[in-house]
Amino acid sequence: MTAYLITGAKIVVGGPESERVADLLIDNGEIVAVGTNLDTPTDVETIDAKGLIALPGLVDLHTHLREPGREDAETVLTGTKAAALGGFTAVHAMANTDPVADTAGVVEQVWRLGREAGYADVYPIGAVTVGLKGTQLAELGAMADSAARVRVFSDDGMCVWDAALMRRALEYVKAFGGVIAQHAQEPRLTQGAQMNEGELSGVLGLTGWPSVAEESIIARDILLNGHVGSKLHICHLSTKGSVEIVRAAKKRGFEVTAEVTPHHLLLTEDLATSYNPVFKVNPPLRTKADVEAVREGLADGTIDIVATDHAPHPVEDKDCEWSAAAFGMLGLETALSVVQHAMIDTGLMTWAELADRMSYRPAAIGQVSEHGRPLEAGAPANLTLIDPAARRTVVPGESASLSRNTPFDGMELPGRVVATFLRGEPTVLDGKPAR
Amino acid sequence: MRHLLSAGDLTRDDATLILDTAEEMRSLADRPIKKLPALRGRTVVNLFFEDSTRTRISFEAAAKRLSADVINFSAKGSSVSKGESLKDTALTLQAMGADGVVCRHGSSGAPHLLATSGWMTGSVVNAGDGTHEHPTQALLDAFTMRRHLGSLEGRRITIVGDVLHSRVARSNVLLLSTLGADVTVVAPPTLLPVGMSSWPCTTSYDLDSVLPKSDAVMMLRVQRERMNDAFFPSAREYSRRYGLDVHRMAQLPDEAIVLHPGPMNRGMEISAQVADSTRSVIVEQVTNGVAIRMAVLYLLLSGSPETSTTSTEEQTA
Fold it and tell me: For chain A, what percent of residues have pLDDT higher than 70?
């Protein structure tokens, strides 16, 4: 295994004050030393990282890798390659594959494919209910005990809308410390919904997806979880009201964690005016006021993490009329740039806080001990080097994903991932896949 | 003007030009030969993804009276349900050299997509898309009102019914306000979109209070099935509160007219006596529909750059 000496990077270690310029020596999959004038092995490979920032490898709690079942949209290999290019060293693969990841067999298959791909560690998320149908609990214990060691369970794409079933799921996973990640969407309030409900949906004649459909489920589940004392995580929170509910709940001592996607930190509903389905996503893009609220929530810690909800779709599922199109957007390769643009360059967050929201905390929620560790001697060498001064224009055709449905097409964004290391091995060097 | 996608895209001058052109087209109906050579050699495709016999034959008659070649493409019932087919259909029409495509589609924005996707180069006329818009219906309604009321400036026009799901209502509110009318929409609160403050109209839940101040009343079709989704309790209750019967009609000023885009639910939103009364201009709307669609097709297709000199000479209607 090659040893690497990364010189002159600004290293983000821990709290907001702990950014410092130093060298970083990686060997045998670990960070051996951090400091200056380090003792290095003779055959070390040096990477000049002057002007770059070294971040702990990013961890995504919400990725759709589409395999098994929709290998035309993405595979574990292409999805994790995109992840590495985006600075991620670990991704959590959502359960809505075909077949659904609702048995130990499927989660072990996905876990094994991740190991083989080698670009990022893949942690499968198990379905809460059989076939995501919301009627019967899946074998959560079997998935937890499997080689994939599942700890996060979600019916993402579908809401566990039945309050009794949600209660039981929250209770049941206490036996092995699991967390239920809820896709908060009241189904009756969102039948046929196409975009955020408001003035614009009325004008465009697209069926509305009202904020209250998200907020009512979040409020219900926080109270349910308060009753049973388990672990609740809210997927892709998107409205101002949701931020207020979570903030108030945390203040009153309720246990809950929440995520926001990069696209909800930047894009607004008016993009639907083009009727271009690349902007169709669930939950939908909201208003400017919502974007401001989720940014504020992420900055003050109300929202714990950024998760991409990377949702690849083949061209034909987006190259069509709005109502026929699939929901979802690519996210892995643009997440860091979007968060830098929305949170860092606006002064709302520091790089250390970004490391917290995109690495430490998602790893903690996903209970992944190998990832999300501060860049210190003895930690696994999972890290990414980024050039914050670079600017780039997003070109869908350049994506490592099999799909092209990025809503950031043509947008100029700051920041570029220069290198990513997974357990000491480069997955990305010079901004290109290194395997 | 290259496409007609939304009534909101029309300036007052655009709209007036269409209405004035339609007047000339309508006078043609009184001549022994009801045909003009204006679009000879041009191909108009009626691309209907939803059933709508009335709108389709209206466009067909309009195109034929302008001597265009007309192809009717009914996608309803075929395997067309996914978007890929919209794209393939558009590519097919492009390959066949369609100069104009009249599109009716169940998905809001589908004509917009045809016009902007680059799949085809012809002009697109929105003949009704989902719950979005139906601009030629609004034009023919305005045309009909103008013939009865004169200028629409300051005229009080009331639109009653399922505004939430109505493409007719959206296009009419936009067009009539552009033409200077004072538009009021009346519906139960469940059938109004949330956040209508940006719409250029006022809203009311009370039909009886609005009728005495209306120069024209447009009744929208209300599907009985909406009551299954709890938009209103029953057809009878809807009819009692928002239907136009002779007693309600009596509250209208003397010269006021009654419109309906059709097809009507007699006894639901409009009583048979009202529909057949002298105030009703519903049949006239159908006649005017052909004239309006002739005007739209003429203005979109006869002057485009690739038109040969012979067709420019024919612009003498």
Answer: 99
Judge whether B34 lies within some domain.
yes
Mean pLDDT of chain B: 91
By Cβ distance, the residue of A208, A274, A277 closest to B194 is: A208
The total domain count for chain B is 2
Sketch the domain layout of chain A as residue ranges: 4-54+378-433, 57-366
Q: Identify all chain A residues contacting B131, using CB atoms and an 8 Å cutoff.
A: 205-207
Residue B311 predicted with pLDDT over 70: no
Is A207 an 8 Å CB contact of chain B? yes
**B73 and B181 housed in the same domain:** no
Question: Are B281 and B293 contained in the same domain?
Answer: no
Q: With CB atoms and an 8 Å threshold, state whether B129 touches A204.
A: no
Confidence label for A344 from pLDDT (cuts 50, 70 and 90):
very high
Note whether A198 contacts B194, CB cutoff 8 Å.
Answer: yes
A202, A274, A324: residue with CB nearest B195: A202
Closest CA to B173 of B215, B141, B144, B148: B141
Beta bridge partners of A329: A310
Mark the binding-site residues of A for Zn(2+), compressed into ranges: 62, 64, 156, 183, 236, 309
This model of the complex carries an ipTM of: 0.90
Residue B128 gets the label, from left (phi > 0), alpha (psi -120 to 50) or beta, of left
Looking at the fold, whether B198 and B247 belong to one and the same domain comes out as: yes
Does the domain spanning A57-366 belong to CATH 3.30.420.40?
no
Looking at the structure, tell me whether residues B23 and B45 fall in a common domain: yes
Residue B78 binned pLDDT confidence (cut-offs 50, 70, 90) = low
3-state secondary structure A178-211: CEEEECCCCCHHHCCCCEECCHHHHHHCCCEECH
Q: Which helix (H) or strand (E) holds A261?
A: none
pLDDT of residue A29 exceeding 90, the answer is yes
Sign of CA dihedral B138, B129, A267, A243: positive
Same-domain pairing of B20 and B107: yes
Residues B270 and B281 in one domain: yes
Does any domain span residue B97? yes
Q: Is residue B256 part of a domain?
A: yes
pLDDT band at B259 (very low <50, low <70, confident <90, very high): very high
| Exposure b/e, A56-85, CB count within 10 A at least 16 = b | bbbbbbbbbbbbbebeebbbbbbbbbbbbb
DSSP character string of B220-285: PP--GGGGGGTSSS-HHHHHHHH-B-HHHHTTS-TT-EEE--S---BTTTB-HHHHTSTTB-HHHH
Report how far residue A85's alpha carbon sits from residue A58's, in angstroms, rounded to the nearest whole number: 11
Tell me if B2 is assigned to some domain: no
Q: How far is CA A387 from CA A81, A84, A331, A332, in A?
A: 19, 15, 19, 17
- Looking at the DSSP assignment, which residues form a beta bridge with residue A387? A416
Backbone angles phi, psi at A153, to 5 degrees: -125, 135
The candidate with the shortest Cα–Cα distance to B199, out of A145, A204, A89, is A204
Q: With 70 as the cut, is the pLDDT of residue A329 above it?
A: yes
Residue B106 sits in the same domain as residue B127: yes
Domain that holds residue B19: 7-133+289-313
Residue of B nearest to A314 (CA): B84
The CATH number of residue B212's host domain is 3.40.50.1370
Reply yes or no on whether A300 is catalytic: no
Is CATH 2.60.120.10 the right assignment for the domain spanning A4-54+378-433?
A: no
Comparing A100-104, B90-94, B237-241, the range with the smallest average pLDDT is B90-94
Q: Which of A188, A317, A321, A405 would you mutate first to test chain B, the one with the most B CBs within 10 A?
A: A321
Region B57-70 average pLDDT: 96
Which of B113, B117, B190, B231 has the most A C-beta neighbours within 10 Å, making it the best mutation to test the interface with A? B113
Average pLDDT over residues A92-96: 98
